[in-house]
Amino acid sequence: MKKTILFLLFNCLITASIFSQNLQSPEQFLGYEIGTQFTRHADVVNYFKHVAENSTSVEYTTYGKTNENRPLTYAVISSEENLKNIEEIRANHLSNTGVLSSNSSKKADKAIVWLSYNVHGNEASSTEAAMQTVYDLVTNNKEWLKNTVVILDPCINPDGRDRYANWYNQVKATPYNASPLAAEHHEPWPGGRPNHYLFDLNRDWAWATQVETKNRLKIYNTWLPHIHVDFHEQGINDPYYFAPAAEPFHEIITPFQRDFQSEIGKNHAKYFDENGWLYFTKERFDLLYPSYGDTYPTYMGAIGMTYEQAGNGQAGLGIQTTEGYELTLVDRVAHHLTTGLSTVEIASQNVEKLNAEFNKFYNNDQLSYKSYALNGSPDKIAALKNLMDLHEIKYGSTNSGKIKGFNYTANKQADFTANENTLLINTNQPKGKMVKVLFEPNAKLSDSLTYDITAWSLPYAYGLEAVASNKLLNSSQIASANSVVNTSTNASGYISKWDSMEDARFLSALLKEGIKVRFSTLEFENGDQKFNPGSLVITKSDNRTFKDFNTKLIEIANNHGRQLTAANSGFSKSGPDFGSSEIKIINQPRVGVLRGDGVSSLNFGEIWHFFEKDLHYPITPIDTDYFKNIDFSLIDILVIPSGRYSSLLDKKALEKLKSWIQGGGKVIAIGNAVGNFAGEAGFNLKENKPETEKDTTATVNLIPYSSRERENIKELITGSIVKTSLDKTHPMAFGYGDTYFSLKLSSDSYSYLSKGYNVAYLKDSPEVVSGFAGSEAAKNMKNSMIFGEERIGQGSIIYMVDNPLFRAFWENGKLFFVNSLFFVNNDTYRLKI
Q1: Is the separation of the CB atoms in 438 and 387 below 8 Å?
Q2: Taking 90 as the threshold, does the pLDDT of residue 693 lie above it?
Q3: Sign of the C-alpha dihedral, residues 504, 510, 513, 515?
Q4: Which member of 149, 448, 572, 707 has the lowest number of beta carbons within 10 Å of its beta carbon?
Q5: Where in the chain is the domain with CATH 3.40.630.10?
């Protein structure tokens, strides 16, 4: 028996020795010192595979693919013994939160640390550091792994990283040129920061609109780490930022989370001080907006942190800073390596405390709002449920009749009536604090100087009526919805409702198949049913040459879950008949979208993503390089994203554009693109000028230097929700009621159109229902247009002062954009060239 045990031990030692001998450092594997080149994503993946194959302390897995088909991966790093029992460790950890029920008598006794690298593609030093970090953990710091599990995602944004790395490797000098004037320090549009669809993945954690986020959340929610670090880069003259974070901290963040951030920061400071490296803390990066890589984990109980290294896409392999030293990639990697290892070290030293406090975080008895009840379109309710499923937040239904609480629509305490379709989300569940954050009517601000938007409440974002109740309401299981099954008939036509993006996708599918569709501009009654303006009407007459019309229509409707109402006759009991000019044809528009230098890459990405992934409708991207020379007859609609167009839209270009509009073209201008038409000849748009006080210059000049930034926020709106009035009779507003809650992202303000249609607008006393709006900016909002249409000749220009597609999460704004495409001034057939 003793010989057998000795033989097994000997074999284990031999195996471990072989593993350690075969394991190569990043430099040995890649053939160059880390920090002297930017590594392609494929080579990063290959190195992690090598480590997993040659170390008993690493498991490496693919959790998804990007839009450009690059693998999304993560490594689980711990002791060999822990990896053998990793599922038990994970189950014990999750049972400590109540997320998972476990029959095990073992307590959670490991620290779980998650390190996320390169969420912004051109902040590329962190992925280089990730390779060195995994090597150092399994070679020089194995002691920490005995009681710690490290989950390491080496590159959250592979598409953006390769966009940057490939560009840089193509243009850099050899040896690299440290002059800030060199081409290698000036990225072309759109830069490497965003993902394929030009989204900022560090603002997508809560909304999960992107494939990278959706796939990551599946893994994140199977672990719920104690500590999560998001590695970033900032301007070349800022040395290094680490925790603790800046105010405002969201009110649900616990004293322990705040204090432990400081403990981690002090540990980092020890190493930075030893090396003579500069750093700063407690500035700039707050913990409020819930969709960051530091706040989302924080609201899930973690110590969520951002680490920011000087550099970003400007720095390259080395750059001369304005402070007289050269910042190199080697330096940047060393700093990120140090904070990563330091984080694991302090986690290993505080396992018991982390587990105890994590357990406390998941007790939600102290939350004031116990239940959120929501009514609205079944499609919008379904969209919200899909988001809750991504976060593994539980929901049910209630039929509690009258519910007292904060009524979101009324923006005050008021009664709310529940029905059999009311969605109920309670906070007495493990992720109750995240429920509070996502659904709270108005986030409490301890400081109005913030890094991002200050309002996001989901009932407003999804266009739902809602109430927040201090009482815990009884929840029952939601009955599974019956699938829609339409059957073919010999009807004169079919009618389908219009109030959601599901309806918009249905329309898009019909148009792409060549099925002709109409919409009603007025309410009408056909058979025994009444239909609202915007309802789709698909007639046999319009489609008489379409082979198998009924079969194809029914197939598309069933695929999209759309209930068709068969109309035996085009004669209406009330309202327009099918042949009325008020039942307008919907032409299939050819849509161009401006992109390139001067265009907001984020807004272009939102539009691009919307068409390809949400609406499923084709577009033609048009670059600013050749925009002035395009043949406008090849498109019907031009979408101009937010951007800077003073040189592009000069007098000659505006004249050409106006002439095209007069001939029947349509422009949709979004965000600050709207301002390019204000005050221009032939356009009715005028900017609201802020009220000026006497002796303004003298007053401003007496404001102390240290107070200027805070004083300036009086002029700003940092993402607040405002209640707007609607002209619901205008086609742009079909599917909406009398009011709309708009996410206002800037203080831009425009007068009502005197010649045109003010579709969404603010009256004399604008109502900000959530978020921060500076006092002067709020004054300037009164009597301003939000969405409007101006007719010019046969065509239109549509002004969207607020961006309805912002970050793809403001669901209730999307139908305005769809209506602008298909309903507004789109019923005149034009010969296609």
Answers
A1: no
A2: no
A3: negative
A4: 707
A5: 2-361
Domain with CATH 3.40.50.880 in the chain: 591-688+715-822
Q: How far apart are the first and last CA of the chain?
A: 88
Residues 6+ apart with CB under 8 A from 482: none
Q: In this structure, how many other beta carbons lie within 10 angstroms of the beta carbon of residue 818?
A: 25
DSSP state of 773: B
Instruction: Specify the fold of 2-361.
Output: Aminopeptidase (3.40.630)
pLDDT tens digits, 35-57: 999 999 999 999 999 999 999 99
> Exposed/middle/buried for 621, CB within 10 Å: 0-12, 13-18, 19+?
middle
CB atoms within 10 A of CB 251: 13
Sorting pLDDT into bands at 50, 70 and 90, what band is 707? low
pLDDT digits (tens, 9 = 90+) for 322-352: 999 999 999 999 999 999 999 999 999 999 9
How many CA atoms does the CB half-sphere of 530 hold within 13 Å?
5
CB contact set of 730 (below 8 Å; sequence gap of 6+): 757, 759, 789
d(CA 821, CA 823): 6
What is the CB neighbour count within 10 angstroms for residue 551?
10
pTM: 0.94
Q: Scanning the structure block, which residue is given the tokens 């290993």?
A: 348
Among 69, 34, 74, 81, smallest CA distance to 51 is for 74
Six-digit token string for 424: 């109920």
Q: Hey, is 424 helix, strand or coil?
A: strand
What is the rounded distance in angstroms from the CA atom of residue 40 to the CA atom of residue 25?
17
Distance CA 827, CA 806 (A): 28
- Mean residue pLDDT across the chain: 93
Q: Which fold has domain 591-688+715-822?
A: Rossmann fold (3.40.50)
387: CB partners within 8 A, 6+ apart: 207, 208, 458
